[in-house]
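Please produce the structure of this protein holding magnesium ion.
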Amino acid sequence: MRSLLFVPGSRPDRIAKALGAGADAVCIDLEDAVPPDGKTEARASVMAALSEPRAQTPRLGFRINPVRTPNGLADLAAYSASSAAADFIMIPKVSHPVELEIIAGALESHERPHLWPIVESAEGLSRAYDIAAGPRVQGMLFGGADFAADLGTTMEWEPLFHARGTLSAAAAAAGIQLLDVPYLDVNDDEGLAASTARVKALGFTGRACIHPKQIAGVNAAFTPTNTEIEQARRVLAAFAQSKGGAALLDGKLVELPVIRAAERTLQAAGLVE
Ligand code: GLV
Ligand code: MG
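Below is the modeled complex.
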């Protein structure tokens, strides 16, 4: 998933449009986008929306309330008792992998969905790898807004740098995807592009969006360019010619780590498995 678009669970009328907006995934939010007195109604309409037949892409899922709260437990109970079929469930404020084990247990009879924990507290970050390696986990989201609030920092690059780096290593070790917090200024295209390029360089595989107009920029940031694909092919060709030994390409050494990076580029472009 390069891009994931959030839609408020209190606005089911927006789901159809969101599904056609070009994001790789759409996530209907029952947490922060829904006020406390709207939770019951939103929960029912989200379960109904997830029960409708739909195309395979984009992926469609929903964000429950934290599982340590009555609303989170009610979201989960409603899902497992309904005929709703989500591709993924996003779980906010995860602080310990036991939360994922409980959810996976409650979903035992469902073939899907994948779980997407959100790490957004100092406590969650301290268990980043164990959360990333939890049951059914396909990817993780960095909840930068709540994380900054938990630490008492701003959302500038430096205060969040350590958390992003830690999550990147945890996600790589567990072999899962990693999405970044949405860019909160929906009118700042340049800021979105610059910060997304930075998180991609740090190893993130995609980014959440809060407005459809952010999707194209995010998809572009996580899609290899023709130049990058061409370069990856040249690297692989040079290595193949060297018959397993080290090769030189444009004066630079090509060895196994460089090959891995080239293969990753072709994978991200969907050109190899
Ligand atoms: C997302 O949930 C965030 O807190 O940034
Ligand atoms: Mg949050």
